[in-house]
């Protein structure tokens, strides 16, 4: 089945984790994929994997927090593939700290990647898609829905992504652009991001067990659990969906 056949996608943070799984899955389902990330070696490996499977892909160097990078990245995608139909604003960083322990510099760094990056990516994608339509998918989190005392800056960034997505969705719908904008809210997924958080704790097994226990299904998610949701939002199967939240969290926020 080729659920996004003929479409062109850009996926940010596509060198690792959820972004990597998403780039591979979109390519498997027929999309041409721009793999956009700071990490070039890992990103080129994703491109090679797509090409080895018979797909088309391109590595695009991108720091999502820089507007000039976005201008260059979209121009590169349009020059190579001629159009843009799907933008997955996935790049993000985790940061642990309470309201008391988070410095203003740390706060601003998290917002610049997690929130400014999504704003700039959405703005650039709307400009590239407004003549023909498309789907924009923004990675929020369970942490954009409920609070965690140890994730002050991350909570704020992901809550911002959730409501910014609705604003952009309404603007596009009311402007007649045929661009849909939705947010995705994963629970804890076993990616390099969460592996990094685990590695920082003295008792890693106990930390992982504590994370697992937060999910009523009793385990963490895998990158593909989220990629399949993103594929649905990217495809025309979700054509009546905009300004919505796709929660994929093993029951974390159902409690
Ligand atoms: P990850 O750390 O495993 O991978 C993130 C990728 O983003 C890396 O390839 C990294 O190089 C890239 N990146 C980081 N900063 C960048 C920048 N400024 N410009 C371009 N690329 C940059 O992360 P992941 O777990 O795959 O998370 C992906 C997204 O999903 C993030 O937005 C994260 O907040 C969100 N999320 C993750 C989880 C989880 O449990 N893993 C849960 C909820 C939401």
Automatic annotation (TrEMBL):
Gene3D superfamilies given in the database record: NAD(P)-binding Rossmann-like Domain
Family matches, as InterPro entries: NAD(P)-bd_dom_sf, Sc_DH/Rdtase_CS, SDR_fam
One annotated GO molecular function: glucose 1-dehydrogenase [NAD(P)+] activity
Pfam family, one: adh_short_C2
SUPFAM superfamilies membership: NAD(P)-binding Rossmann-fold domains
Keyword Oxidoreductase found: yes
Enzyme Commission number(s) from the entry: 1.1.1.47
Alphabetically ordered keywords of this record: Oxidoreductase
Family: Belongs to the short-chain dehydrogenases/reductases (SDR) family.
Protein name: Glucose 1-dehydrogenase
Lineage: Bacteria, Pseudomonadati, Pseudomonadota, Alphaproteobacteria, Acetobacterales
